[in-house]
Amino acid sequence: MTDYVDRYCERVAPGLWGELFNSLSSLAFLIAAVLVWWLADGDRAGRLLAALIGLVFVASSAFHLLATRWAAVGDSMALLVFAAAYAGLVARRWAWVAVPAFLGLTVVVALLGGGLYLSVLLGLGVLAFVHRAYWTHYAVAGALFALALALRTIDRDACDLVPAGTHFLWHLLAGVVLYLVSRILLARRGERG
């Protein structure tokens, strides 16, 4: 688990600052966490989401600074933990169905070669369909996440054109998406009083 991992254009050798842009762009998650914490204004669900976004920041930073296999696993798992918690919070009384359904979808999509994050994009589509009052908000979040996922996916192929790669743009856009979906959940909770 301590093996060196070289997945991105920017990393050309082991070392703490081998991915400067990827490491610094992880700050987008910290900024999102602080903003959600502030927006939550004492709301426990909002504070939980802020803490989980903070976990995404820590995990992403650890991976891009250390470039080890254990950090890579932590990086992927942190975002999936946020997504599973979000599914439970947004489903409220149906969390017992929503969370296992999301996790099951994630496993199936990953086994079919779609990676770990395609299920998040599919989940945003489901939320846009189910929560009609917020469908445009979820559609915007979904479009941004689709763009972020595309930039994450093409990073290695873009090395010749963009030596720093495109992974850092994934961080910036994914940070915005985590903020937006958290804001949507807090707005919905505020409407229920």
TrEMBL record:
The chain crosses the membrane at residues 20-40, 46-66, 78-96, 102-130, 137-154, 166-186. Keywords: Membrane, Transmembrane, Transmembrane helix. This is Ceramidase. The keyword Iron-sulfur does not apply.
